[in-house]
Protein backbone atom coordinates (compact mmCIF):
# COMPACT_ATOMS: atom_id res chain seq x y z
CA UNK A 1 0.00 0.00 0.00
CA UNK A 2 1.38 3.39 -1.06
CA UNK A 3 0.39 5.74 1.77
CA UNK A 4 2.57 8.74 1.02
CA UNK A 5 0.70 11.93 1.87
CA UNK A 6 -2.92 12.30 2.87
CA UNK A 7 -5.63 10.02 1.53
CA UNK A 8 -7.66 12.43 -0.62
CA UNK A 9 -9.90 12.09 -3.64
CA UNK A 10 -7.23 13.46 -5.95
CA UNK A 11 -4.36 11.46 -4.37
CA UNK A 12 -5.89 8.31 -2.90
CA UNK A 13 -3.88 5.61 -1.29
CA UNK A 14 -3.48 2.65 -3.61
CA UNK A 15 -2.03 -0.81 -3.72
CA UNK A 16 1.50 -1.00 -5.11
CA UNK A 17 2.45 -3.75 -7.53
CA UNK A 18 5.37 -4.74 -9.73
CA UNK A 19 4.53 -3.73 -13.29
CA UNK A 20 7.61 -5.30 -14.84
CA UNK A 21 10.42 -7.44 -13.38
CA UNK A 22 13.50 -8.85 -15.13
CA UNK A 23 13.88 -12.56 -15.56
CA UNK A 24 16.34 -14.02 -13.09
CA UNK A 25 19.30 -15.74 -14.70
CA UNK A 26 22.04 -17.98 -13.41
CA UNK A 27 23.32 -17.36 -9.90
CA UNK A 28 26.81 -15.83 -10.01
CA UNK A 29 29.41 -17.54 -7.87
CA UNK A 30 32.02 -15.71 -5.73
CA UNK A 31 34.76 -17.08 -7.99
CA UNK A 32 33.14 -15.48 -11.04
CA UNK A 33 32.90 -12.15 -9.22
CA UNK A 34 36.57 -12.32 -8.22
CA UNK A 35 37.54 -13.07 -11.81
CA UNK A 36 35.55 -10.05 -12.98
CA UNK A 37 37.10 -7.76 -10.36
CA UNK A 38 40.33 -9.15 -8.89
CA UNK A 39 41.21 -8.27 -5.33
CA UNK A 40 43.85 -5.51 -5.04
CA UNK A 41 47.37 -6.55 -4.23
CA UNK A 42 48.50 -6.05 -0.62
CA UNK A 43 49.98 -2.65 0.09
CA UNK A 44 53.74 -2.52 -0.10
CA UNK A 45 55.47 -0.46 2.57
CA UNK A 46 58.64 1.53 1.95
CA UNK A 47 61.83 -0.36 2.72
CA UNK A 48 62.55 1.58 5.91
CA UNK A 49 59.11 0.61 7.35
CA UNK A 50 59.23 -3.10 6.58
CA UNK A 51 59.84 -5.50 9.47
CA UNK A 52 62.22 -7.62 7.42
CA UNK A 53 63.08 -10.92 9.14
CA UNK A 54 61.39 -9.91 12.40
CA UNK A 55 60.12 -12.89 14.38
CA UNK A 56 56.94 -11.73 16.09
CA UNK A 57 56.17 -14.99 17.96
CA UNK A 58 59.69 -14.89 19.42
CA UNK A 59 59.16 -11.28 20.48
CA UNK A 60 55.84 -12.18 22.13
CA UNK A 61 57.63 -14.92 24.04
CA UNK A 62 60.15 -12.36 25.33
CA UNK A 63 57.29 -10.01 26.18
CA UNK A 64 56.02 -12.81 28.45
CA UNK A 65 52.36 -11.75 28.39
CA UNK A 66 49.69 -14.35 27.51
CA UNK A 67 47.75 -13.52 24.36
CA UNK A 68 45.03 -14.75 22.02
CA UNK A 69 45.49 -14.64 18.27
CA UNK A 70 42.73 -13.89 15.77
CA UNK A 71 42.14 -12.19 12.40
CA UNK A 72 41.54 -8.46 12.19
CA UNK A 73 41.01 -6.37 9.01
CA UNK A 74 42.91 -8.83 6.85
CA UNK A 75 45.83 -9.09 9.25
CA UNK A 76 46.59 -10.76 12.56
CA UNK A 77 45.77 -9.47 16.01
CA UNK A 78 47.38 -10.60 19.25
CA UNK A 79 45.09 -9.64 22.12
CA UNK A 80 47.23 -9.37 25.24
CA UNK A 81 46.11 -10.51 28.68
CA UNK A 82 47.09 -7.06 29.95
CA UNK A 83 48.80 -3.92 28.70
CA UNK A 84 52.64 -3.98 28.76
CA UNK A 85 52.68 -0.47 30.24
CA UNK A 86 49.99 -0.93 32.88
CA UNK A 87 48.92 -4.37 34.19
CA UNK A 88 45.62 -2.86 35.36
CA UNK A 89 44.56 -2.50 31.73
CA UNK A 90 43.03 -5.93 31.44
CA UNK A 91 42.36 -8.50 28.76
CA UNK A 92 41.13 -7.12 25.46
CA UNK A 93 42.26 -3.57 26.20
CA UNK A 94 45.66 -3.88 24.49
CA UNK A 95 46.73 -5.70 21.36
CA UNK A 96 49.58 -6.02 18.89
CA UNK A 97 48.68 -6.00 15.20
CA UNK A 98 50.43 -7.28 12.10
CA UNK A 99 49.08 -6.06 8.79
CA UNK A 100 49.16 -8.17 5.61
CA UNK A 101 52.18 -6.20 4.38
CA UNK A 102 54.12 -7.02 7.56
CA UNK A 103 53.73 -3.67 9.33
CA UNK A 104 53.40 -3.94 13.09
CA UNK A 105 51.27 -1.86 15.41
CA UNK A 106 50.13 -1.57 18.99
CA UNK A 107 47.07 -0.05 20.61
CA UNK A 108 45.74 0.24 24.13
CA UNK A 109 42.20 1.51 24.59
CA UNK A 110 42.99 3.47 27.76
CA UNK A 111 43.71 7.19 27.56
CA UNK A 112 46.85 6.80 29.67
CA UNK A 113 48.40 4.71 26.86
CA UNK A 114 46.99 6.67 23.92
CA UNK A 115 50.49 7.81 22.92
CA UNK A 116 52.05 4.34 23.05
CA UNK A 117 53.02 2.79 19.71
CA UNK A 118 54.69 -0.37 18.48
CA UNK A 119 58.11 1.28 18.77
CA UNK A 120 57.47 1.82 22.49
CA UNK A 121 56.58 -1.85 23.02
CA UNK A 122 59.70 -2.91 21.10
CA UNK A 123 61.89 -0.61 23.18
CA UNK A 124 60.29 -1.92 26.39
CA UNK A 125 61.47 -5.46 25.56
CA UNK A 126 64.60 -5.01 23.43
CA UNK A 127 65.76 -1.61 24.62
CA UNK A 128 66.05 1.64 22.68
CA UNK A 129 66.86 1.26 19.02
CA UNK A 130 68.40 3.60 16.47
CA UNK A 131 65.92 5.76 14.64
CA UNK A 132 67.30 4.70 11.27
CA UNK A 133 67.88 8.28 10.17
CA UNK A 134 71.06 8.35 8.17
CA UNK A 135 73.33 11.37 8.43
CA UNK A 136 73.26 13.61 5.43
CA UNK A 137 76.23 13.34 3.13
CA UNK A 138 78.56 16.26 3.19
CA UNK A 139 78.06 18.51 0.19
CA UNK A 140 81.17 20.10 -1.30
CA UNK A 141 80.63 23.81 -1.61
CA UNK A 142 81.80 24.79 -5.07
CA UNK A 143 80.09 28.15 -5.01
CA UNK A 144 82.34 31.15 -5.68
CA UNK A 145 83.01 33.60 -2.93
CA UNK A 146 80.15 36.08 -2.65
CA UNK A 147 80.78 39.56 -3.84
CA UNK A 148 80.29 42.41 -1.39
CA UNK A 149 76.89 44.10 -1.45
CA UNK A 150 76.79 47.84 -1.61
CA UNK A 151 75.65 49.32 1.67
CA UNK A 152 74.05 52.29 -0.06
CA UNK A 153 72.08 52.85 -3.25
CA UNK A 154 73.36 54.70 -6.24
CA UNK A 155 72.68 58.41 -5.92
CA UNK A 156 69.62 59.62 -7.81
CA UNK A 157 68.13 63.10 -8.12
CA UNK A 158 65.55 64.00 -5.52
CA UNK A 159 61.93 63.65 -6.60
CA UNK A 160 60.44 67.10 -7.10
CA UNK A 161 56.66 66.93 -7.72
CA UNK A 162 56.45 70.58 -8.77
CA UNK A 163 58.98 69.99 -11.53
CA UNK A 164 58.33 66.39 -12.61
CA UNK A 165 54.54 66.11 -12.41
CA UNK A 166 51.95 67.88 -14.55
CA UNK A 167 49.38 70.05 -12.81
CA UNK A 168 46.53 67.58 -13.46
CA UNK A 169 48.38 64.79 -11.65
CA UNK A 170 50.42 66.61 -9.00
CA UNK A 171 47.62 67.34 -6.51
CA UNK A 172 46.23 63.82 -6.77
CA UNK A 173 49.66 62.22 -6.18
CA UNK A 174 50.39 64.38 -3.16
CA UNK A 175 46.94 63.70 -1.70
CA UNK A 176 47.30 59.92 -2.13
CA UNK A 177 50.82 59.97 -0.71
CA UNK A 178 49.50 61.75 2.38
CA UNK A 179 46.55 59.34 2.80
CA UNK A 180 48.44 56.03 2.40
CA UNK A 181 51.03 57.28 3.67
CA UNK A 182 53.65 56.63 1.04
CA UNK A 183 56.50 58.49 -0.65
CA UNK A 184 55.18 60.68 -3.48
CA UNK A 185 57.60 59.16 -5.98
CA UNK A 186 56.14 55.68 -5.31
CA UNK A 187 52.59 56.86 -6.01
CA UNK A 188 53.70 58.88 -9.03
CA UNK A 189 55.66 55.95 -10.47
CA UNK A 190 52.67 53.61 -10.30
CA UNK A 191 50.43 56.16 -11.98
CA UNK A 192 52.91 57.08 -14.67
CA UNK A 193 53.39 53.40 -15.45
CA UNK A 194 49.71 53.11 -16.25
CA UNK A 195 48.51 56.51 -17.40
CA UNK A 196 45.24 55.09 -18.65
CA UNK A 197 44.01 54.43 -15.12
CA UNK A 198 45.02 57.83 -13.83
CA UNK A 199 43.73 59.86 -16.77
CA UNK A 200 40.71 57.76 -17.65
CA UNK A 201 38.22 60.04 -19.32
CA UNK A 202 40.37 63.14 -18.72
CA UNK A 203 42.84 63.08 -21.62
CA UNK A 204 42.13 64.07 -25.16
CA UNK A 205 44.47 63.92 -28.08
CA UNK A 206 43.58 66.59 -30.64
CA UNK A 207 43.92 65.66 -34.27
CA UNK A 208 47.00 67.00 -35.92
CA UNK A 209 46.44 69.40 -38.80
CA UNK A 210 48.57 68.50 -41.82
CA UNK A 211 51.22 71.11 -42.55
Compact summary:
By secondary structure, the protein is α+β, with helices and mostly antiparallel strands. It contains 7 helices and 4 strands, in the order ααββββααααα. A hairpin with a 5-residue loop joins strand 3 and strand 4.
Explain what this protein looks like in three dimensions.
There is one protein chain. The protein is of the alpha+beta class and 211 residues long. Among the domains are: 50-126; 165-193, no CATH class. It contains seven helices and four strands. The chain has helices at 30-36, 56-63, 118-126, 161-164, 167-179, 184-193, 195-198; strands spanning 67-72, 75-80, 94-98, 104-108. The protein has a four-stranded antiparallel β-sheet, covered by helices on one side. The chain is flat and about 95 Å long. The model has no long low-confidence stretch (mean pLDDT 79).
Amino acid sequence: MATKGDHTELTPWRVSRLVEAPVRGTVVTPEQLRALHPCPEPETLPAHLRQSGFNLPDFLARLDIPYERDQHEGGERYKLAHCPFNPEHGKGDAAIFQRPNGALGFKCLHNACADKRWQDVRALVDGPRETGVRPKKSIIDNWPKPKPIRASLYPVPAFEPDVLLPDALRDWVMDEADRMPSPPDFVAGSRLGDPGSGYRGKMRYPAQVPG
